[in-house]
Amino acid sequence: MPAVKAFRESSGLAQHDVAAAAGMTDERLAEIEQGTSTPRGLELAMLSDVLDVPVDMLTNE
């Protein structure tokens, strides 16, 4: 999900900080950002909360 990476970078947040706040490993967040893995519902909700963007903004690529 490249949108996750774009929102994270535009917020000036480090990958490690977002991963920790969302309750996932750095590796898991990297997989999601690269599009090699799809986030589960709770992960998506946590990323939405941490990045302060609606879920649909993360999923509409």
From TrEMBL:
Q: Which GO terms describe its molecular function?
A: DNA binding
A Pfam match is HTH_3
Q: Which SUPFAM superfamilies match?
A: lambda repressor-like DNA-binding domains
**InterPro entries, sorted:** Cro/C1-type_HTH, Lambda_DNA-bd_dom_sf
Q: Which residues form a coiled coil?
A: none
Q: In this protein, which residues make up the domain named HTH cro/C1-type?
A: 4-58
Q: Entry's Gene3D superfamilies?
A: lambda repressor-like DNA-binding domains
Output this protein's name: HTH cro/C1-type domain-containing protein
Q: Which organism is it from?
A: Aureimonas glaciei
